[in-house]
C-alpha cells in the first residue's frame, strides 16, 4: 500500500482545486469513481439508481481541467506524479479485476 494524494481541478479557475488522500492507489481510484458518481447524482437528483460504463467515466475524467496523483515511493521517500492517462489505466485494471472477481 502506497499513500496516494489525488489532485483535482474540475474548472478553469484555480479556486476549484482540491485534493484527497488515500492509503493506497486502489482506494484512490475508487475515490475517483465516487467523485463521478456524486457528479451523476447531482445532475440526476430524481434518479434512484445511477449506472454508467467505463467510457462515460473516462469522458468525465477528460472534462476535468486537471487530475493527477502523487504516489508515495518508499524506496526514495518521495512522491511520484502520475497523469490522467495513468489514472484511467489504473481505474480500468481495478474495474476489470472487480468484474472478474468471484465476489462480484
TrEMBL record:
Keywords: Cell cycle, Pyrimidine biosynthesis. The keyword Nuclease does not apply. PROSITE patterns: ER. One of its GO terms (biological process) is pyrimidine nucleotide biosynthetic process. InterPro entries: EHR_sf, ERH. Transmembrane segments: none annotated. It comes from the Eukaryota. SUPFAM superfamilies: ERH-like (SSF143875). Gene3D superfamilies: Enhancer of rudimentary. Belongs to the E(R) family. Acts as an enhancer of the rudimentary gene. Has a role in pyrimidine biosynthesis and the cell cycle. This is Protein enhancer of rudimentary. It comes from Drosophila grimshawi (Hawaiian fruit fly). The gene is Dgri\GH12071.
Amino acid at each position: 500500500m502506497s499513500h496516494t494524494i489525488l489532485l483535482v481541478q474540475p474548472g478553469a479557475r484555480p479556486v476549484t482545486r482540491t485534493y484527497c488522500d488515500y492509503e493506497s492507489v486502489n482506494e484512490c481510484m475508487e475515490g475517483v469513481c465516487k467523485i463521478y458518481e456524486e457528479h451523476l447524482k447531482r445532475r440526476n437528483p430524481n434518479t434512484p439508481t445511477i449506472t454508467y460504463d467505463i467510457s462515460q467515466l473516462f469522458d468525465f475524467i477528460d472534462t476535468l481541467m486537471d487530475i493527477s496523483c502523487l504516489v508515495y515511493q518508499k524506496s526514495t521517500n518521495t512522491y511520484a506524479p502520475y497523469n490522467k492517462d495513468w489514472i484511467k489505466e489504473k481505474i480500468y485494471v481495478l474495474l476489470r479485476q472487480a468484474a472478474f472477481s468471484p465476489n462480484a
